[in-house]
Predict the 3D structure of the following.
Amino acid sequence: MLVRQCNVGMVMTNCFFIINEETKEVALVDPGDQAKRLLDQCRQLGLTLKVILLTHGHFDHIMAVPALKEATGATVYASKAEDALLMDAEYNLSGAWQHRPLTVKADVLLQDGEEFTVCGTPVKMILTPGHTCGSCCYYLPEQGWLFSGDTLFLESYGRLDLPTAMPSRMASSIKDKLLVLPEETVVYPGHNDLTTIGHEKKHNPMAGWA
């Protein structure tokens, strides 16, 4: 398994390709825009898009989903707690920020801690309310990878002033559910640079939050 990164959309969202090198199957995490570009990359690499993993429903993480699903039939996963936001163009900010009102219906709505298989590797969904009420992260234990969306950034965390945000829950989501993972876990965030759980335990402001 390997990961490739592609920055998409008006706020340069990190979209990640989780690639099974043997089967050439790929999962996309948070395809926020530029569907044609993402499809072109899949074709150039000889990859078959099988799965789309959404960490949350804000426009900059979902805008490419309808076109990708239409083109490939990929299965869309999200947390069950995020279903309402995904289906509301006001709450997901697609109308206000992109002037392209959009709703997305996930094919699979996951419960906290639910485990499943993507492109031949186990994945665990970790519900991390804070940035939105249904924000989640995807942990791949065999690889030691965490796709953290807008919950956990390098020495930071996602905004807490957008629709359905739960500021009182962010610290516990980060401290009690993410920073307990192995320190060597590589964190692939929705924006900015990669980090590790060990680094965030020392430097993230939420790590010391009472």
User: Anything to note?
Assistant: The chain has a mean pLDDT of 95.
